[in-house]
Amino acid sequence: MSKHGAPTNTAEELKALDRKNLKVAILAASWHETVMNGLINGAQRAAKDANIGTVDLVRVPGSFELPVAARVLAEKYDAVIALGVVIRGGTPHFDYVCQAATMGLTQVSLDTRTPIGFGVLTCDDEAQAVDRAGLEGSAEDKGYEAFSAAVMTVAALA
Ligand code: DLZ
Protein backbone atom coordinates (compact mmCIF):
# COMPACT_ATOMS: atom_id res chain seq x y z
CA MET A 1 0.00 0.00 0.00
CA SER A 2 1.36 3.46 -0.89
CA LYS A 3 0.59 4.80 2.63
CA HIS A 4 3.43 2.78 4.16
CA GLY A 5 6.09 5.12 5.58
CA ALA A 6 4.00 8.30 5.17
CA PRO A 7 4.44 11.06 7.78
CA THR A 8 2.17 10.86 10.81
CA ASN A 9 0.51 13.66 12.83
CA THR A 10 -0.02 15.70 9.66
CA ALA A 11 -3.30 17.21 10.84
CA GLU A 12 -1.78 18.38 14.13
CA GLU A 13 1.22 19.90 12.35
CA LEU A 14 -1.04 21.65 9.85
CA LYS A 15 -3.23 23.13 12.58
CA ALA A 16 -0.10 24.40 14.34
CA LEU A 17 1.00 26.21 11.15
CA ASP A 18 -1.97 28.63 11.15
CA ARG A 19 -1.01 30.49 7.91
CA LYS A 20 -3.66 33.18 7.44
CA ASN A 21 -1.24 35.16 5.25
CA LEU A 22 -0.80 32.48 2.56
CA LYS A 23 -2.45 32.35 -0.89
CA VAL A 24 -2.85 28.83 -2.24
CA ALA A 25 -4.36 27.58 -5.51
CA ILE A 26 -6.02 24.17 -5.74
CA LEU A 27 -5.65 23.21 -9.41
CA ALA A 28 -7.88 20.30 -10.40
CA ALA A 29 -8.37 18.34 -13.62
CA SER A 30 -11.89 17.23 -14.53
CA TRP A 31 -11.64 13.51 -15.37
CA HIS A 32 -13.17 10.88 -13.03
CA GLU A 33 -15.55 13.18 -11.20
CA THR A 34 -16.33 11.21 -8.01
CA VAL A 35 -12.69 10.56 -7.22
CA MET A 36 -11.74 14.12 -8.11
CA ASN A 37 -14.43 15.53 -5.82
CA GLY A 38 -12.90 13.48 -2.99
CA LEU A 39 -9.45 14.90 -3.72
CA ILE A 40 -10.74 18.48 -3.85
CA ASN A 41 -12.64 18.05 -0.57
CA GLY A 42 -9.52 16.63 1.06
CA ALA A 43 -7.41 19.59 -0.10
CA GLN A 44 -10.04 22.04 1.12
CA ARG A 45 -10.19 20.30 4.52
CA ALA A 46 -6.41 20.65 4.84
CA ALA A 47 -6.71 24.36 3.94
CA LYS A 48 -9.17 24.81 6.80
CA ASP A 49 -6.93 22.91 9.22
CA ALA A 50 -4.02 25.18 8.34
CA ASN A 51 -6.24 28.29 8.48
CA ILE A 52 -5.03 29.44 5.03
CA GLY A 53 -6.24 32.98 4.22
CA THR A 54 -6.87 32.64 0.46
CA VAL A 55 -7.70 29.37 -1.26
CA ASP A 56 -8.85 29.48 -4.90
CA LEU A 57 -10.05 26.52 -6.96
CA VAL A 58 -9.02 26.47 -10.65
CA ARG A 59 -10.25 23.74 -13.05
CA VAL A 60 -8.60 22.44 -16.23
CA PRO A 61 -9.88 19.68 -18.57
CA GLY A 62 -7.34 16.89 -18.00
CA SER A 63 -4.15 16.05 -16.14
CA PHE A 64 -2.14 16.86 -19.26
CA GLU A 65 -3.17 20.51 -18.81
CA LEU A 66 -2.00 20.70 -15.17
CA PRO A 67 1.61 21.82 -15.83
CA VAL A 68 0.81 24.85 -18.00
CA ALA A 69 -1.87 26.05 -15.59
CA ALA A 70 0.45 25.41 -12.63
CA ARG A 71 3.13 27.50 -14.35
CA VAL A 72 0.83 30.53 -14.50
CA LEU A 73 -0.56 30.04 -10.99
CA ALA A 74 2.88 29.53 -9.46
CA GLU A 75 3.66 33.19 -10.28
CA LYS A 76 0.68 34.41 -8.25
CA TYR A 77 0.33 31.99 -5.34
CA ASP A 78 2.57 30.80 -2.50
CA ALA A 79 1.79 27.17 -3.35
CA VAL A 80 -0.17 25.22 -5.96
CA ILE A 81 -1.89 21.91 -5.26
CA ALA A 82 -2.17 19.91 -8.49
CA LEU A 83 -4.91 17.27 -8.47
CA GLY A 84 -5.52 14.72 -11.21
CA VAL A 85 -6.90 11.23 -11.63
CA VAL A 86 -5.43 9.08 -14.39
CA ILE A 87 -6.72 5.53 -14.76
CA ARG A 88 -5.00 2.95 -16.92
CA GLY A 89 -6.99 2.05 -20.01
CA GLY A 90 -6.31 -0.12 -23.01
CA THR A 91 -4.08 2.42 -24.78
CA PRO A 92 -0.63 3.91 -24.08
CA HIS A 93 -2.38 7.23 -23.28
CA PHE A 94 -2.04 6.49 -19.54
CA ASP A 95 1.76 6.53 -19.70
CA TYR A 96 1.92 9.68 -21.78
CA VAL A 97 -0.49 11.63 -19.57
CA CYS A 98 1.19 10.46 -16.33
CA GLN A 99 4.64 11.27 -17.60
CA ALA A 100 3.65 14.68 -18.94
CA ALA A 101 1.94 15.64 -15.69
CA THR A 102 4.75 14.40 -13.44
CA MET A 103 7.63 15.85 -15.41
CA GLY A 104 5.78 19.06 -16.19
CA LEU A 105 4.83 19.75 -12.58
CA THR A 106 8.36 18.98 -11.38
CA GLN A 107 9.79 21.41 -13.92
CA VAL A 108 7.32 24.14 -12.96
CA SER A 109 8.15 23.77 -9.27
CA LEU A 110 11.90 23.99 -9.90
CA ASP A 111 11.65 26.84 -12.43
CA THR A 112 9.41 29.00 -10.26
CA ARG A 113 10.64 27.85 -6.82
CA THR A 114 6.98 27.50 -5.82
CA PRO A 115 6.07 24.35 -3.88
CA ILE A 116 3.59 22.20 -5.80
CA GLY A 117 1.60 19.53 -4.01
CA PHE A 118 1.53 16.43 -6.21
CA GLY A 119 -1.96 15.02 -5.94
CA VAL A 120 -2.12 13.17 -9.24
CA LEU A 121 -3.43 9.64 -8.77
CA THR A 122 -2.06 7.14 -11.30
CA CYS A 123 -4.10 4.00 -10.83
CA ASP A 124 -4.72 0.66 -12.50
CA ASP A 125 -8.48 0.86 -11.97
CA GLU A 126 -11.29 2.96 -10.49
CA ALA A 127 -11.38 0.98 -7.20
CA GLN A 128 -7.75 1.79 -6.51
CA ALA A 129 -8.43 5.48 -7.18
CA VAL A 130 -11.49 5.53 -4.88
CA ASP A 131 -9.38 3.99 -2.10
CA ARG A 132 -7.00 6.98 -2.25
CA ALA A 133 -9.55 9.74 -2.66
CA GLY A 134 -10.48 10.53 0.95
CA LEU A 135 -14.04 9.31 0.38
CA GLU A 136 -16.02 7.43 3.00
CA GLY A 137 -14.26 4.08 3.42
CA SER A 138 -11.10 5.17 1.53
CA ALA A 139 -7.79 4.06 3.03
CA GLU A 140 -6.02 7.25 1.97
CA ASP A 141 -6.71 10.94 1.52
CA LYS A 142 -4.34 12.11 -1.20
CA GLY A 143 -5.90 15.55 -1.65
CA TYR A 144 -5.32 16.32 2.03
CA GLU A 145 -1.78 14.92 1.81
CA ALA A 146 -0.86 16.94 -1.28
CA PHE A 147 -2.11 20.16 0.27
CA SER A 148 -0.24 19.46 3.52
CA ALA A 149 3.01 18.67 1.73
CA ALA A 150 3.02 21.90 -0.27
CA VAL A 151 2.11 24.16 2.64
CA MET A 152 4.61 22.49 4.97
CA THR A 153 7.27 23.01 2.32
CA VAL A 154 6.36 26.71 2.15
CA ALA A 155 6.72 26.88 5.94
CA ALA A 156 10.03 24.98 5.91
CA LEU A 157 11.52 27.41 3.39
CA ALA A 158 10.24 30.64 4.98
C1 DLZ B 1 -7.19 11.62 -22.98
C2 DLZ B 1 -7.19 11.30 -21.53
C3 DLZ B 1 -7.32 9.96 -21.11
C4 DLZ B 1 -7.41 8.81 -22.06
N1 DLZ B 1 -7.38 9.65 -19.81
C5 DLZ B 1 -7.30 10.66 -18.88
C6 DLZ B 1 -7.35 10.36 -17.50
O1 DLZ B 1 -7.53 9.20 -17.06
N2 DLZ B 1 -7.23 11.40 -16.64
C7 DLZ B 1 -7.05 12.70 -17.04
O2 DLZ B 1 -6.91 13.59 -16.18
N3 DLZ B 1 -7.01 12.99 -18.36
C8 DLZ B 1 -7.15 12.03 -19.27
N4 DLZ B 1 -7.12 12.33 -20.61
C9 DLZ B 1 -7.15 13.76 -21.04
C10 DLZ B 1 -5.78 14.44 -21.12
O3 DLZ B 1 -5.28 14.73 -19.84
C11 DLZ B 1 -5.96 15.78 -21.89
O4 DLZ B 1 -6.94 16.57 -21.27
C12 DLZ B 1 -6.35 15.56 -23.35
O5 DLZ B 1 -5.41 14.74 -23.99
C13 DLZ B 1 -6.45 16.91 -24.10
O6 DLZ B 1 -5.21 17.59 -24.07
Estimate the helix proportion, in percent: 40-55%
Q: Which residues sit in consecutive blocks of at least 5 with pLDDT less than 50?
A: none
Terminal-residue CA separation: 33 Å
The CATH topology turns out to be Rossmann fold
Output the radius of gyration.
15 Å
Classified in CATH, the superfamily is Lumazine/riboflavin synthase
Based on Cα principal axes, name the global outline. Answer: globular
Number of strands: 4
Ligands and ions found = ligand DLZ
Number of domains: 1
Secondary structure topology:
Layout: H1 10-17, E1 23-28, H2 33-49, E2 54-59, H3 66-73, E3 79-87, H4 93-112, E4 116-123, H5 126-130, H6 142-157
Parallel strand pairs: 1-2, 1-3, 3-4
Helix pairs in contact: 1-6, 2-6, 3-4
Bound molecules: ligand DLZ.
Describe this protein's structure:
The chain has 158 residues and is α/β, with parallel strands linked by helices. The chain has one domain (20-157): Lumazine/riboflavin synthase (Rossmann fold), CATH 3.40.50.960. Helices cover 47% and strands 18% of the residues. The protein contains six helices and four strands; from the N terminus they run αβαβαβαβαα. It has helices spanning 10-17, 33-49, 66-73, 93-112, 126-130, 142-157, and strands spanning 23-28, 54-59, 79-87, 116-123. A four-stranded parallel sheet has the order 2-1-3-4, with helices on both faces. Helix 2 links the parallel strand 1 (23-28) and strand 2. Helix 2 runs parallel beside helix 6. It starts with 9 loop residues before the first helix and ends with a helix. The mean pLDDT is 94. Bound molecules: ligand DLZ. Residues 29, 31, 61-65, 84-87, 89, 93, 97 line the site of ligand DLZ.
